[in-house]
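Hi everyone, sorry if this is the wrong subforum. Our group has a chain we'd like a structural model of before ordering constructs, and none of us has done structure prediction before. Sequence below.
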Amino acid sequence: MAGSFRFNHHFLASLLIIITTLESVHTTTTNTEFVKSSCTFTTYPRLCFASLSTQASLIQTSPKVMAHAALNITLASAKATSAMMVRLSSSSRLTPREVSAMRDCVEELGDTLDELRKSIGEMGQLSGSNYEVYMNDIQTWVSAALTDESTCTEGFEGDDMNGKVNVFVRGRILVIAHLTSNALALINHFASIHG
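Answer:
Right subforum, don't worry. Here is the predicted structure as tokens:
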């Protein structure tokens, strides 16, 4: 009888572990599928999924958390690019025109960082009677960030720009612009299902 009890106890414990593991795998799959399906609302779905899939357990199935995470990832990318451009602008190998374009771009990225930070702050306050005001602010700021990024890349146009610097900087800014575009699409999607 005691052996039968131990067998049943071990069997039930093992069964509970298997069920818990399967539920965890199912939840992870559901969260990842949610991220993937939500990314279809963006212009750059592959970039969206690549940048947000690692956050699936945090996002779960929340459009608001997903939009918030997209803003944070965009902010981190913009910060890193801005810091890189500050270092690059002090290089003695750049022409005065390239240094000027680089500094202008850093200024535009500073505006982008401010707009993204304000948007992230207001995402945390979205609720109740002020929802529509905050959402309009967020949409406006993220749209303005896209404009800043576009203005930055325009400074690198022209034949007098070093091809390598031009391609490198424009490539980095393009990634930020695509991340920003995706964040705005996710914000707009959240607004459409919330409002």
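For your construct planning: Residues 1-7, 21-27 have pLDDT under 50 and may be disordered. The CA atoms of residues 168 and 174 lie 10 Å apart.
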